[in-house]
Amino acid sequence: MIVQNKIAVGIDIGGTNTVLGLVDQHGNILFRDLVKTTDFPDPQNFISVISERIKSLLNSGDLQLEGIGIGAPNGNYFNGTIEFAPNLKWKGIVPLVNIFKEHFDVPVFLTNDANAAAMGEKIYGGAKEMKDFIFITLGTGVGSGIVTNGQLVYGHDGFAGEIGHVIVDFNGRPCGCGRKGCLETYCSAGGIVTTMNELIQQEGIEGKEWTSKSIYEAAMKGDTLAIHTFEITGEILGKALANSVAYTSPEAIFLFGGLAQAGELIFEPTKQFLEDNLLEIYKGKVKLLSSSLPEADAAILGASALVW
Amino acid sequence: MIVQNKIAVGIDIGGTNTVLGLVDQHGNILFRDLVKTTDFPDPQNFISVISERIKSLLNSGDLQLEGIGIGAPNGNYFNGTIEFAPNLKWKGIVPLVNIFKEHFDVPVFLTNDANAAAMGEKIYGGAKEMKDFIFITLGTGVGSGIVTNGQLVYGHDGFAGEIGHVIVDFNGRPCGCGRKGCLETYCSAGGIVTTMNELIQQEGIEGKEWTSKSIYEAAMKGDTLAIHTFEITGEILGKALANSVAYTSPEAIFLFGGLAQAGELIFEPTKQFLEDNLLEIYKGKVKLLSSSLPEADAAILGASALVW
User: Smallest CA–CA separation between A82 and chain B, in Å?
Assistant: First the structure.
């Protein structure tokens, strides 16, 4: 008798690229592939090509496909649809799961990318033993996945967990969502650039073109404005997370993404303002942790985690 | 064969009074009783007296006791303890469930009063068919219970769902919790009195002693400052609830308690500011509803609902 390796496919659909991988139950990625999302104005055609790639990868080994997990912007778990995703060419509502099921006879799961990453942390990462945690992605945008009672919170409509669009200042910075003062406008890559530019303007110093990366490098070299930018960002993030704790009282909050990789520069002020602003009963109970998912593979791992 | 009525005991422990009732599966309260909490400096003695009362009520009918549910300030579901409740004479950690189990051989459940009321809404009230909703109590304090995936969210430590202590203004009013600007400082009975007094002071009008009830009565008679007080309260509540939706994306938010009984005076502005401040994907999806639990019996019903 031949024992086959049980495999989940993880697919992460991004505005530019779609990455996919074959993942075993321990979180090892056996095979990977990449497709340019922008090459496919038609989702039917996109899924046909992806499916062919997956089938040929499956033939490479003695593998038993258990299911397919997909992370995508505005991915809806209940409907299996991508709905009005601003960063994708496919407009309106795309019945992604149903189209995949025309190609595969296994369960297919879809959710948004941050929810998928939260499940990656639960299945393969630092949240294995946790039933209640919050996962925050700090990148181009700010996303989140909330786990309570061991389950991802999808909410009534499948779109729960948008902590990046919690408003922290109703008179604050304009947000891409059309409102003002969302957490994302302060704690995303673009948000910290805006904060740095504001500080520079206040100081009357001549400006240059900053990126989140160059602010990080300047801070590491001791630039006081760059360090202060991280402090301000950590203050806003820490206070927002202190409020988040009052909702679901998590054991830990995981930070993931570019900004999280700035290490102590962002963790130290965030931790301080989180702890200082917690309601008494929560003080000293909530861990602020760095995600243990490898940056490059988190999207594939997260998507595949939906299957197990 | 005699068919016995299945019964849950619901106990609501308050700072002044403790009420209890025998409740059937349809939410009918068959018998009630009341004990003054303040008469008992010792919780052991308190529970002995309560237990005797329950046993004599049970003897009044052909009743089969299925379990006991208790709502209490700072009640911890996981530990079965009341922990450091500021409004009770019993200091420190009281192992309430264990003491009850010395008197009864049935399951005993404990949680805080707002969580219990949320379960009351789910088992007997307007949330029967709902898997995702938020229940807000607007009274002396502001409490909440959050239900996701059909389950009450207890969080890692059993203390989740403190929306009354979400900070809406970090430089705002001092709160009893030691911090500043908690939702409770604006949307509790005391909060609206403070708002009314602030408006009166701004206008330079001679003050009088207001209560939440007299503000309601003034508003109903057309007093513009009293009406404006409700508008301000609804704006703060509506904006806070718009942020709440970004966490758990509920089907409905239920308002309960004294302030909720002000009807359109509070519902109209709250609904408007909730809807106006929702992230696009949530707009038009979230119902703002009045709790269907009868004010006088909600505490007993909620506590008993923990049993079913």
Answer: 12
